[in-house]
Amino acid sequence: MPLAVKDLFCTEGVPSQSGSRILEGYEPPYTATVVSRLRAAGASLLAKTNQDEFAMGSSNENSAFGPVLNPWDRTRVPGGSSGGSAAAVAAGLAPWALGTDTGGSIRQPAALCGIVGLKPTYGAVSRYGMIAFASSLDQAGPLTRDVTDAALLFGRMIGRDRCDATSLEFPDAIESPGARRLDGISLGVPAELTGGSDRTAAAAGGVEEVGIEAGVLDAFRAALDRACELGAEIVESVSLPHAPHALSAYYVLAPAEASSNLARFDGVRYGLRAEHAEDLLDMYERTRHDGFGAEVKRRIMLGAYALSAGYYEAYYGRAQQVRTKISEDFARAFAEVDFIVTPTSPSTAFKLGEKTSDPLAMYLSDYCTVPMSLAGVPAISIPCGLSEGLPVGLQLAGRAFSENALLDTAYALEQALGFDGSPARA
Ligand code: GLN
Predict the structure, then answer these.
(1) 210-221, pLDDT tens digit by residue?
(2) Of 414, 410, 343, which is closest to residue 196 (Cα–Cα)?
(3) Where are the alpha helices (H) located in 63-162, listed in sequence order?
(4) Pick the catalytic residue: 16, 20, 81, 167?
(5) Which of 237, 302, 314, 342 is most buried as measured by Cβ atoms within 10 A of its Cβ?
(6) E-state strands within 120-195
(7) pLDDT average, residue stretch 52-72
(8) 255: closest CA among 88, 100, 102?
C-alpha cells in the first residue's frame, strides 16, 4: 500500500524538514520506527506531506512550504498540523497517511477534511525518528478514509521499541472492527466540551468563549441519536470539570517542551546555517532568526519564559498539576461510562487567513482535543455529517489501550451514519 507520511517522520535519504526552513537540505541517516514497521509490512513510501512547522498549528498555514488547501473547498484550511496528510487522503491522492497528534493534530484535520484520524494511547506507538515537538504528548497515528483502514494501519504501527523508552507493548493485537450494534455501550457527553444537553442553549451561546458552531452541534447531536438507535446509552451527567483549563495548561507545557526540544537546531548539526556570521553566537542567532517561523519563535519564547528560574513553579509546575487533575477527571469519567464523545473541532474548516493574525483564536481549535492529549488516552475522529457543505467530526475517547473497543464503536457508528466522504460529490 502506498503511504503518505507527514514530513516530521525521519525517512532515510529523503528530505525530512518538519515543515521548517531550519531543516533545509536535511536528509536523515535513519528512518522512524513506525515508517520502518509499515515498510516491513509491505507499505511503500508514496510521499512526504506538508504540515505546520514543527507541528505547531491548527491550519497548516505555519509551514515554510506554504499552506495546504482543503479539498472540500480550496479557499479553506485543511486543519493542522497534519493538514497535508489529511488533505491527501480526503482528495484521494493517497489511500493511507501518517500524522502526529500533540494536542489535536491528527483529529482536527481529519474532522475538517471529512476522514478518520486516530490518536493512540500515549506510548502505544514509538516516537523514535519523529522530529519532536512536545515529547510527553506527541503520538503518531493513522489518517484514513474509514475506520477499518485505521485499524489495519494502526495494528502495524504499535509495539514497544527499545529506541523509545516511553513505548510499551500493546496488550492485544488490533482486530478488524465489525460491531453493528452498541448495546451495553455507554457514551458520556461532558457538558464542558459540548455545551450540555440543551441544544438550543448550546447553539445560542456555545461552550462559553469557544462557541461551538450551531451546525457542528446539530451534526454531533444527530450522531448521538443514531448511537441511541444502535442501543448505546447516552450519559449527559458525565463531567470533566478541569477540561476548560486544558488549553491553558497545554500552552505552558507544550511550548516548555518545545523550547527544550528545538534547542538542538543551532546551525551546527542539521540543515540551515546562516552565512556571514561574525562568531559562533552570531551564527546561532542568525540561523534561528532565519530558520524558524513566527509561531515557532513565539512558542520558544513562551516555553523559555515559563521554565525560567522564579517562574517555574508558577507556570510549569502549576500546569503539571492541572494535567494531573485532567487525568483524574478522565479516570472518574471512565469509571462511569465506556467512552467520552464530543465534537472534534468547534468549527468546520475555516477560511485561509481567517485566524492567522489571532493566535488565541487559532489555539481554540483544539479546545475539545487537548484534554485527551494531556491525559494520554486514545481518541478517534470520524466524520458525522456536513454543516453548510463542510465535514463535521465526532470525537470518541476511551481508556488507555482501549483502541480495539474504540475502533469497534467508531465502526458501528460509521456504518450507521453512512457519511459520503467524497468532496467531489459534495
Ligand atoms: N494545534 C495545536 C498546537 O498548535 C496542536 C498541534 C499538534 O497536535 N501537533 O500546538
Answers:
(1) 789 999 999 999
(2) 343
(3) 83-90, 107-113, 147-154
(4) 81
(5) 342
(6) 139-144, 186-188
(7) 98
(8) 102
Q: How far is the CA of 57 from the centre of ligand 1 (A)?
A: 5
Task: Name the DSSP letter for residue 149.
Answer: H
From 6, 119, 325, 355, the catalytic residue: 6
Region class of 41: left (phi > 0), else alpha (psi between -120 and 50), else beta: alpha
- Confirm if 106 and 100 have CB atoms less than 8 A apart: yes
Average predicted confidence (pLDDT) for the chain: 95
Distance of CA 134 to the CA centre of its chain: 12
68 C-alpha to ligand 1 centroid (Å): 16
Contact 88, 49 (CB under 8 A): yes
Closest-CA residue to 123 (of 381, 377, 339, 371): 377
- Please list every protein residue whose CB sits less than 6 Å from any atom of ligand 1: 55-58, 81, 101-105, 133, 254, 366
- Residue 155 backbone phi and psi in degrees, to 5: -60, -20
Is 239 a catalytic site residue?
Answer: no
Q: Looking at the chain, how many residues does it have? A: 426
Residue among 8, 58, 85, 259 to mutate when testing ligand 1 (max atoms within 8 A of CB)? 58
- How much distance in Å is there from the Cα of 31 to the middle of ligand 1? 23
Mutate to test the pocket of ligand 1, among 20, 52, 143 (most ligand atoms within 8 A of CB): 52
Cell 455545551 found at: 195
**Ligand 1 atom closest to residue 100's alpha carbon, by position in its atom list:** 9
User: Each residue of 222-265: pLDDT tens digit?
Assistant: 999 999 999 999 999 999 999 999 999 999 999 999 999 999 99
Give the ranges where 292-349 is alpha helix by DSSP (H): 294-306, 318-336
Euclidean distance between CA atoms 230 and 185, whole angstroms: 10
Q: Point out the ligand 1 atom lying closest to the alpha carbon of residue 58.
A: 1
Question: Would you tell me how many other CB atoms lie within 10 Å of the CB of residue 41?
Answer: 13
